[in-house]
Amino acid sequence: KLSAKPTLNKCSLSSDNVTKEDNLINLDHGDPTVYESFWGKMGEKCTLVIKGNDLMSYMSDTRRLCWFLEPELEGAITRFHRVAGNAAVEDRYVVIGTGSTQLYQAVLYALTAPGSGAGPVPVVSAAPYYSQYQAETDLLCSGLYKWGGDAYAYDKDGPYIEVVTSPNNPDGNIREAVVNRSGTGEGKVLYDLAYYWPQYTPITRPADYDIMYFTFSKSTGHAGSRIGWALVKDEEVARKMTKFIELSSIGVSKDSQIRAAKIMGAICDSYQDLKSGNSENFFEFAHQLMAKRWKRLREVVAEVSEVFSLPKYPKEYCLFHGEFTESYPAYAWLKSNESIEDCEKFLREHCKIAGRGGRRFGVDPSYVRVTMLSREEAFEQFLQRLLSVKDIKKRAL
Ligand code: PMP
């Protein structure tokens, strides 16, 4: 019998990410709520009115390869990349997806269908790799492709696919492909550039790969709109990706598409409007905010350096900011000292912080990933609770 009342999720989260039941602060997901304060101040510039008879059709432009892509969004994506300087947009097809999550699956399909008959193609990524790739690859037990694990350990012959995430989730490093079989024509590489934006990392050149994809979730923080886009050189690959999206969801929400176009447009306008000043420029705002958070985190980790450490990142010349800048990744990749076997467990039990442990990323449990993209209250709590490790140490002595 169905109950008329919806059951409440037991782990109810308040706006500061703290679960009411056990006071645990949840920093496991990379939910980009950090940028809400900026967008809240944008008012009319980013407000959209959608009338009852707007955007009702499945179609956008049936003459185009990606027939469900609103021309307004395609234009905005091109302009957005030109402003950020982070990707080459010429001579490429744009294919959109319901988040880059759907695009990942669309690419795997496009690169392996129709099946060669030689069995599922292995999909590899260098550890530590984004924790969702494995589950997404193996979800449907596809006959076309299957998860093949850590790319550093991959040495088989035959076709394979390598996923390169740069900057990397979880550790923030800039990456290139690691399976060294170039020239054999057997390997296909796809680039997940979710975090290649000026607030997280120096933009050293426009990315210029055959298959690369980005997401609205991490560029501007609008994860709820579920918009991702791929820039694809090869027409056949773009066509098959479009087919995958047609068969899995008959396109992508138009309401979301025009919202994404409006917000990307507002960012680009702010860079063309010399009167607007830095405070209204999204990438400067986001970069300063991330820099401030990383400075504070590094100060706290320095105080508990007997227990935790963080990666260091090189300074590089950023074409966007026009100066040498540091990386301020979307996640803190914390490592615990040898006396702590399981860093995730330690953080949960002693600091009441929920992060995601190293094993989920294909490495050992002395690592844990904690999001840097939470709201301010949650970030403050994170720092306070991390500092409390000092008291634990004192009590232990
Ligand atoms: N790739 C990477 C590396 C990510 O970190 C994420 C989100 N955490 C995604 C893809 C998926 O993003 P979305 O589906 O929201 O576009």
UniProtKB/TrEMBL annotation:
Its cofactor is pyridoxal 5'-phosphate. This is Tryptophan aminotransferase 1. Pfam families: Alliinase_C. InterPro entries: Alliinase_C, Alliinase_N_sf, Ethylene_sulfur-biosynth, PyrdxlP-dep_Trfase, PyrdxlP-dep_Trfase_major, PyrdxlP-dep_Trfase_small. It comes from Morus notabilis. Belongs to the alliinase family. Residues 25-388 form the Alliinase C-terminal domain. GO terms for molecular function: carbon-sulfur lyase activity; transaminase activity.
